[in-house]
User: Which sequence fits this backbone?
């Protein structure tokens, strides 16, 4: 910091020297804030932005823009400017003396950008100011700090962001799902609508991982649970899950982030994986995840009725946040709605309803699962054992998001070989035993494959031997890799966009995004889709190691998390209605691709 | 395979870490030099291909440098007018390894002030193939992106309020200069050295 001040001071001295030395040097250009003095006033709902433009300076009409904090372009009406037509200038519209623009407040902060020049001398970099709208106070410009004269460093500091952020990238500003529902039928329709959407989402890969968790939860009880116990346990799970979804909304309002995405950190994943290992051990009977004996004795009657409701709730909460980080269209819509309007209550309610809707099949499993299976005896023990293995599998699946591929394959190998070995030792004199031995052989073989895969550096448990298959010819193991430039920061993304020069598809993805894998094996591997994509520049926005850079990228794209696909036309504007959030099919991708390829 | 683009893009930090020295401003090893490479006076111009005053004075500047015969001229891209300016800079820098930098720069400077990407390509296309220039730029991407980053950092640190801005040896000038002022500035710089 000190160095900058020194530098600025030194520069000032040199400048003074320069202008004193030569009388012909044009007068020093004013600081941008003095050349174009902005005032913001608010009256009866409308906001007026006024620039007082010094004599000899002018503003460009084309370079006045307003965006929301997340980069969404806002429509602003600018008056006709004076036409400047000159062999050197081309035809441009400019404003002299003063400019005044009315706009409707958005309820959230906006970023206002403008750019101008001093006649015959110098053109300023884009100037960007944040304008805050506080309830009842009216709009305010943040204090730029040291009075009116800005230090040179501040002057151009926002320039790079403004150049690329507002000029380079235009997002389609479309009313979200939640806006629409809310406008049509108020809060009740929003809640009902999101419950319905939750029901639809309940049968997607996002929720599948939760089925065995809930099943294990109700089956893993010491006594086979009654209908009511099963219902209560799964209800606790589902409620906690819905609360976690609502919490995402509150978290988004508070931090501006999708916490679900932010929670894909090694720590959170390790904690969740550990919970599953403990659960598995408990299933194997190593210890009981129940209250200490003396408490349990006293509360035995209640205890018997409630099972471990607390445990169920904990699992539900964790599941929603860490296990199934699925960004679906309704989830993204609700999060963005909260971010844009600041309406936490409605947004959180919508997300809560979404969670409940997604939980309906889980309730059914909880209620009827125990009915379907035999009640007691060896079966019961076997069931617990099966779920123990399943939970260990979950732990490995979660850990796979942060462990190197071969390590994950080694864990799978260990689990499968262990299970296979145990199955292979089942008594062969009964039918079930013979079946078990046969199954054991298969599992042993699968485990061996994973082990070999780990040894040769395989990464994908579903294709453990991929490195052998591709051989030494190519080091590219992932078919989805070709054609995509991968970016991790906003600067790289901007460079890639500038580079592209034509239509661009940005695909937000992460290693831990399970839906992304199904998209990559599905529509992204479809030859027809690949052919349509080949006409575009493809940019993969990788947010695997989620950090501040990733958040900036998500904000730039107005995305809540992976998977999100944004389609830009040649002028780097998003084609309205083309965005794809969540799981998708070839037809949808082709439709969006067609919208920008013409 | 394509991770390369991502990894190279991680370099901007390197540009920022540069110390601001007279040497860095006047003798950046990556910045292409026009005029007389062994000249005793260096003119560095921070400019944008869409900045009207940069363009208007460009012929004068080239003329003064040619007449003097002993001036090193360095145009430092400082794209402040958005994506088309960035693209113009990328294509011009790509032309360096194709021995067409000066021609491309002159063609871009002869355009009207406001440019679209298509205008930029039309101007550059009059000298060489766009794809060749882009490919050449990409081949040296780390170098050029680092240079652009340093240019921006220098211009801001030197307190320049916009384009054009000049460092003529150790003296800084802000805004467009006429012929007389340019010649006087060169004379002073030569006398001081």
Assistant:
């Amino acid at each position: 910091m000190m160095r900058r001040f020194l530098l600025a001071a030194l520069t000032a001295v040199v400048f003074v020297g320069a202008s004193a030395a030569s009388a012909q040097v044009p007068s020093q250009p004013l600081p941008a804030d003095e050349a174009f003095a902005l005032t913001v006033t608010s009256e009866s709902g409308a906001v007026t932005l006024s620039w007082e433009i010094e004599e000899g300076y002018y503003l460009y009409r084309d370079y006045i823009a307003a965006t929301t904090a997340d980069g969404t372009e806002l429509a602003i009406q600018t008056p006709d400017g004076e036409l400047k037509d000159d062999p050197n200038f081309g035809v441009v519209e400019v404003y002299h003396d003063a400019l005044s623009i009315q706009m409707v407040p958005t309820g959230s902060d906006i970023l206002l950008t403008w750019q101008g020049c001093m006649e015959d001398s110098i053109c300023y970099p884009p100037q960007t100011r944040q304008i805050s709208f506080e309830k009842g106070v009216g709009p305010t410009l943040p204090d730029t700090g040291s009075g009116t004269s800005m230090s040179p460093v501040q002057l151009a500091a926002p320039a790079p962001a403004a150049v690329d952020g507002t000029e380079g990238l235009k997002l389609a500003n479309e009313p979200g799902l939640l806006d629409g529902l809310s406008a049509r039928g108020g809060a009740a329709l929003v809640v009902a609508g999101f419950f319905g959407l939750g029901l639809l989402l309940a049968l997607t890969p996002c929720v599948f991982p939760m089925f065995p968790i809930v099943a294990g939860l109700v089956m893993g009880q010491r006594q086979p649970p009654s209908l009511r116990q099963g219902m209560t346990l799964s209800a606790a799970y589902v409620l906690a899950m819905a609360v976690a979804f609502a919490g995402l909304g509150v978290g988004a309002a508070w931090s501006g982030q999708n916490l679900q995405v932010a929670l894909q950190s090694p720590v959170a994943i390790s904690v969740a994986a550990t919970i599953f290992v403990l659960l598995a051990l408990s299933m194997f009977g190593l210890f009981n995840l129940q209250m200490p004996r003396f408490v349990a004795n006293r509360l035995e009657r209640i205890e018997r009725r409630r099972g471990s409701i607390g445990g169920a709730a904990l699992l539900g909460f964790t599941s929603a946040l860490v296990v199934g980080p699925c960004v679906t269209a309704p989830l993204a819509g609700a999060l963005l709605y909260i971010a844009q309007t600041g309406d936490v209550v409605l947004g959180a309610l919508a997300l809560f309803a979404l969670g409940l809707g997604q939980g309906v099949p889980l309730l059914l499993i909880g209620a009827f699962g125990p009915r379907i299976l035999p009640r007691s005896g060896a079966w019961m023990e076997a069931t617990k054992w099966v779920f123990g293995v399943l939970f260990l599998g979950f732990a490995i699946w979660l850990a796979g998001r942060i462990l190197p591929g071969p390590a994950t394959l080694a864990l799978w190998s260990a689990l499968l070989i262990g299970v296979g070995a145990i199955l292979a030792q089942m008594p062969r004199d009964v039918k079930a035993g013979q079946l078990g031995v046969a199954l054991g052989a298969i599992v042993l073989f699968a485990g061996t494959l994973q082990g070999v895969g780990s040894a040769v550096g395989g990464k994908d448990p579903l294709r453990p031997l991929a490195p052998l298959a591709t051989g030494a010819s190519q080091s590219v193991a992932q078919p989805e890799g070709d054609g995509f430039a991968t970016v991790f920061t906003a600067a790289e993304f901007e460079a890639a966009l500038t580079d592209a020069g034509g239509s661009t598809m940005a695909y937000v993805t992460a290693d831990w995004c399970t839906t992304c894998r199904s998209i990559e094996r599905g529509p992204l591997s479809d030859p027809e889709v690949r052919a349509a994509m080949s006409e575009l520049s493809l940019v993969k926005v990788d947010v695997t190691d989620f950090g501040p850079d990733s958040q900036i990228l998500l904000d730039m794209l107005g995305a809540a998390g992976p998977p999100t696909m944004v389609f830009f036309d040649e002028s780097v504007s998003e084609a309205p209605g083309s965005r794809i959030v969540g799981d998708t099919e070839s037809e949808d991708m082709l439709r969006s691709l067609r919208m920008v390829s013409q | 395979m394509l991770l390369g683009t991502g990894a190279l893009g991680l370099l901007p930090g390197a540009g920022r870490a540069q110390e601001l020295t007279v040497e860095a401003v006047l003798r950046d090893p990556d910045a292409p030099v026009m005029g007389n490479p062994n000249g005793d006076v260096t003119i560095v111009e921070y400019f944008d291909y869409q900045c009207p005053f940069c363009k208007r004075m460009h012929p004068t500047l080239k003329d003064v440098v040619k007449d003097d015969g002993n001036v090193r001229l360095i145009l430092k891209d400082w794209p402040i007018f958005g994506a088309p300016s960035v693209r113009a800079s990328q294509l011009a820098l790509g032309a360096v390894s194709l021995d067409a930098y000066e021609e491309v720069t002159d063609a871009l400077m002869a355009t009207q002030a406001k440019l679209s990407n298509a205008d930029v390509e039309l101007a550059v296309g009059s000298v060489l193939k766009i794809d060749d220039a882009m490919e050449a730029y990409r081949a040296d991407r780390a170098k050029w992106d680092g240079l652009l980053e340093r240019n921006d950092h220098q211009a801001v640190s030197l307190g320049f309020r916009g384009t054009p801005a000049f460092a003529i040896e150790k003296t800084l000038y802000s805004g467009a200069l006429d012929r007389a002022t340019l010649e006087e500035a060169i004379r002073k710089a030569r006398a001081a050295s």
Remarks:
- Chain A touches chain B through 70 residues (CB under 8 Å).
